Amino acid sequence: MTFDQTILIIIAVMTAAAAACRLAGFWFMRLIPITPRVEAGLKAIPIAVMIGIIVPPVIKGGIPETVGLIATMAVVKLGANDLIAVLIGMASVAATRALL
Amino acid sequence: MQSSTTLTASGVWRGLKMALPYAASSGVYGLAFGLLANQTGLSVAESVAMSALVFSGTAQIAVLQSWASNPSLIAITLTVLIVNLRYILIGASLRPWLGQLSPLKSTAALLTIVDGSYAIGMREHAKGENDAGVLAGAGIISFTGWVVGTGLGFYMGSLVPNPKVIGLDFVVIAFCASTTALMLGTTRDFLPAAVALIAVVACEIWAPGPWSVVVAALSALLTAALRHKSPPSADAEAANA
Predict the structure, then answer these.
(1) pLDDT in tens, A24-68
(2) With pLDDT > 90 as the criterion, what percentage of chain B qualifies?
(3) CB-CB: which of B96, B204, B216 is closest to A59?
(4) Closest CA to A52 of B188, B210, B226
(5) Which residues in chain A are contacts of B175 at CB distance < 8 A?
């Protein structure tokens, strides 16, 4: 077990910064009354976060990611188990990459 | 009215099981981080401690990649903050759900949050799940994969598989896609999501970076809040409540 003092300080600073981000939004919202308007705004966040995570790699990756995205969403829409949808999405990305 | 929020062991267990593919992907990225940490000159204890405490792969990799240029503490802090800004909006969006838990439980649940566990948690919540254990369980299993992967990768770095070959890099996208498909099926209000989509595509074209999630979330938040129509008295009453 070796710890360098400088690295320990860096880890501590990084830990504080990451934890602050995870906690700040939730605790900040304590100070703001949850009016119907605020609630409508908050409820729009999850799907937007999903879109923000999905879009950049799909634009960068091109065909395999697009195929995987369509496959995953189609399987969910067909009513299959979510885990199966994820596995089929992965498999279709891997297969498309192998073929291209 | 929905039943009240809980955080139970059985919820945690369900979350653990649902997130197994995501934990596998976290594990493989952990292997890659462990290898990078070894090459950068960290000890195994330092590498594992960093993964266990910071628990932010993108930020950790970014910091180690700048290691050779002796970054200042301020530069390191800014890197971690910018990469993790999205968690501020994610945390705000969890207020209505986790706000009913005790401060200790909500804080514990929030510290386990990662992109994939948020996707799983919000998907289950949209289906009517009120047990925040699902969210925490999904976070805990991906945390475990990340930390164990870091330790193994430190020693067996040369054995790190290429995640792309079996589509492991796609796992988080797939979880987010399944959540999106479900949410699009339960709403009749597509405008905030459409605005977020346009904003993130524009962001990718003109200013790509780790802030794309923040851009998407903020644009949807503002669209939904500004357009919200309720009797003026309802907002005022809720504010006074």
Answers:
(1) 999 999 999 999 999 999 999 999 999 999 999 999 999 999 999
(2) 80
(3) B204
(4) B210
(5) 82, 86
| Cβ contact, residue pair B172, A53, below 8 Å | yes
How do residues B32-61 score in pLDDT, each as one tens digit?
A: 999 999 999 999 999 999 999 999 999 999
Q: Is the pLDDT of residue B236 over 80?
A: no
Other C-beta atoms lying within 10 Å of the C-beta of residue B35? 21
B163 neighbors B29 (Cβ within 8 angstroms): yes
Q: Is B40 on the interface with A (CB under 8 A)?
A: no
- Is residue B203's pLDDT more than 80? yes
Nearest C-alpha of chain B: how many angstroms from A62?
12
* Interface confidence (ipTM) of the complex: 0.93
Q: How many Cβ pairs closer than 8 A exist between chain A and B?
A: 299
C-alpha B122/C-alpha B129 separation (Å) is: 9
Q: What is the DSSP annotation of B202-220?
A: HHHHHS-STTHHHHHHHHH
Domain borders along chain B are: 9-168
**DSSP secondary structure letter of residue B5:** P
